[in-house]
Amino acid sequence: MVVRVDWRSALSFVGTVSKFMTLPLLVPLAAALVYGESPLPFVVTVAAAYLVGVALERLRPDPDLGHREGFLFVALTWLIVPLLGTIPYLVAGQGSVAGVENALFESTSGFTTTGATVLAEISIDRHGHAILLWRQLTQWLGGMGIIVLMVAILPKLSVGGAQLMREEAPGFSIEKLKPSIRETARSLWKVYIGFTVLAFGCYYALHLADLAPNMGLYNAVAHALTTLPTGGFSPEARSIEAFSPAVQWTVMPFMLVAGTNFALLWYAFRGAPERLLGNTEFRSYLGTLGAVGVILLGLLVTGIGIAESPVNVGPLIGDFEAAARHGLFQSLSFVTTTGYASMDFNTWSTPTLTVLLFVMFLGGSVGSAAGSVKIVRWFVIQRYVRREFTKTVHPEAVRPIRTSTEVLDEDTVSGLLAFTLLFVALFALSTLLIYFDAVRVGLELTTLDAMSVAMATLGNIGPGFGLAGPMENFLPFSVPAKLYMVFLMWIGRLEILSVLVILTPTYWWK
What we know:
The chain is mainly α. The chain has a domain at 1-174 and 478-510. The chain has helices spanning 7-20, 26-34, 40-57, 67-85, 87-92, 100-111, 124-127, 129-144, 146-153, 161-168, 181-208, 217-227, 245-258, 262-269, 274-277, 280-302, 320-335, 350-360, 375-393, 410-441, 447-458, 479-493, 497-500, 505-509; strands spanning 401-402, 407-408. The protein has a two-stranded antiparallel sheet. The relative contact order is 0.10. The mean pLDDT is 89.
């Protein structure tokens, strides 16, 4: 058989991405110099990324990436970039991320904006400002998408840019905001950067107004870098719980924005807000957030949602403001897959955690930084089921499935159903594997905890329950389990199909 994939070309383009990764590394390198910390971890990583890039580029690619090569390029980019991202942790050699498997877990969690961590002690005193800033920056780079960034920067990727962007975030077609796909990618990044800067300004303004004493310049930058990509990493061990209620209320609208289709936001700022407000998915997204927030509010304010022996819960029972704040905050955090925590929801009751597990499957909008299944897919599935009921009664009826902007063809609907089925099946399999591995090594993990861990990594959500709760970490899991979770984060970020397709013989030979 003859291999039908030009893998040399795909690897060469990965080399170009590797070379460009030296630029963001200059940010933590500068921070190290400013704070008087060792710049060595970043000097070594810059050198390694550049040398890897030069070596791969020597494979001399075809000027245009074919359809098959595009799949390989995207999958390898999201595999190799996190591998390069482990180098600062390994060279620094501090704390739990000094081990290879833990560094790979942390780096992959960062770039895929998962937010799950193996840091046993998140402390600037232990790890330094620069390393933790790199940890935050990996999420910001991964939020809008490495490929979207490369299409915006590299002229030679503009020809097949639309295909590459679809493969990085498969789903519905990429809508051109400008005549060229390169200008479209730049427009999306402008929206992303603009809201990041606005988040930083709002967070730091609270500090200047003496409403958030510990939200200083460093923390404002760090949290702005992880809010918009729905990442969830924080330099504070107790996440957003470490800050005042004013900060928690301020973070919420930015999580809402991060889970919204950035193309719709671009239209809104260009004088067409009706494109946003009239969008079916956006309205479903707001309705879902409101419904989940009200459910959590009711459970918390009445005490039903709190475990019998709560720890660090605070006086939520009867406190409408606190219950509303935590309920709405965690609703936004879970639906948008941000992974922030305004309090330790491990102290909530099993029924409340079950609600949160269900919310993990929702996801934000297509075209946003959110992970998981996405609201629009559930909307289309609901329309599909309703159509099947109608066809049962009226077999000859023709009922196309519509969104607010288009009529979906049957291939799109079939692909959507296939993705959702694969997602649920992989979630079920992963739950079993994680649970039985925990039993094997003697970890106390309930079935609900195992389900949350599988969903937290596959859906790029971040914290789970129990051992993997918001104030805990994934360090206790075995090495094989953590490596499997790395696979789940990788395949979840590319929404399964872009990875699975390259594992089939048909892709390579036919």
